[in-house]
Design brief:
The chain is about 65% helix and about 5% strand. It has helices at about 1-10, 15-25, 25-40, 40-50, 55-60, 60-75, 80-100, 100-110, 130-145, 155-170; strands at about 175-180, 185.
């Protein structure tokens, strides 16, 4: 949606409005944070989040813990065992003492160090790229929430509502129906 709005502003020559929209939407910055997490550059992502709005991590201890957990996973992935242990002990263990679920997640993550082949260990899914994507999505949602945007897109809900409404109408009337949602072409009712 932001790209559509930006395209309109640029195409119609509203340069100042386009620049203001870019700054206010925070789209570029948010995408840079998301990309940093997806690439395993967690420290960079934390720095970018704090540049955007330091309150995001201050007011969301679970998000901060998950970022730190991802940082630990990246240290383990890169074979930095001593650094990983030190980081877990100094940064994550104190948070685990405050919150039982954090402690359980920390124990699962540190368990990766006990296995030579982490891909086949019981907690190997933590090393999977999907773990990075999960953390990136969580950060993205927190940034959107902090900017008073919706964290979930509205389009899927609207499409579900359209399908439901059409199903209700099918029982009562003949009308131009959208059968192919990707093209949104109307099919004439059968008479």
């Amino acid at each position: 949606m932001n790209k559509l709005v930006m395209n309109f502003l640029v195409t119609e020559g509203y340069v100042e409005a386009a620049e203001k929209f870019r700054m206010e939407s925070g789209t570029e910055h948010r995408m840079a944070v998301k990309k940093a997490v997806q690439c395993g550059n967690v420290e960079d992502a934390i720095e970018k989040v704090n540049d955007l709005n330091p309150e995001i991590l201050d007011t969301n201890p679970q998000l901060f813990f998950h970022l730190q957990q991802q940082r630990l996973i990246e240290l383990i992935r890169n074979g930095k065992v001593e650094e990983a242990l030190e980081f877990a002990q100094e940064e994550l263990a104190p948070r685990g003492e405050e919150n039982q679920s954090f402690l359980e997640e920390l124990e699962r993550t540190v368990a990766l160090l006990a296995f030579e082949d982490v891909t086949n260990c019981p907690v190997g899914e933590l090393m999977d790229i999907s773990q990075r994507l999960k953390t990136a999505s969580e950060v993205n949602a927190a940034i959107l929430t902090s900017q008073s945007h919706e964290k979930d897109p509205k389009l899927p809900s609207l499409l579900k509502m359209l399908i439901w409404a059409q199903n209700q109408l099918d029982e009562k009337a003949s009308y131009p129906r959208i059968n192919d949602l990707s093209s949104a072409t109307l099919d004439d009712p059968t008479v």
